[in-house]
Write a structure and sequence with these properties.
Structural class: alpha/beta
Radius of gyration: 14 Å
Shape: globular
Strand content: 5-15%
Distance between the termini: 24 Å
Number of helices: 7
Amino acid sequence: MSGTLVDTNVLLDVVTDDPDWADWSIKALGAAALTGPLLFNDVIYAELSVRFLAIEALDAVIEDAGLRHAVTPREALFLAGKAFRRYRAAGGVRTGVLPDFFIGAHAAVSGAALLTRDSRRYRSYFPTVQLIEP
């Protein structure tokens, strides 16, 4: 798969009109769209849904942004679990980070770039992923 998987934090910047990051995120989305499709997966959809009261409103934002749904390959799900296990074995204590591992593994397995503002964990556990970051 070519294209760019868009991390939830970038989409939230736009949706919430974040005063610090919205401009950067909008420009980065525009630039990434010139190189191929903008993608989201089930994890990104679920994380983003927290900000919406109705599924129709979320779907409208996704459609307006030109995002395409990309199914997470089984190989990526397996890789996410292995990377998370390495994280915990290395002393990682945060339990709410598993979604990042699903997103990073999806990008790694599918060959998609990853547009994110939170690149540290992705860089550490998925070094082959092309990161688009501030």
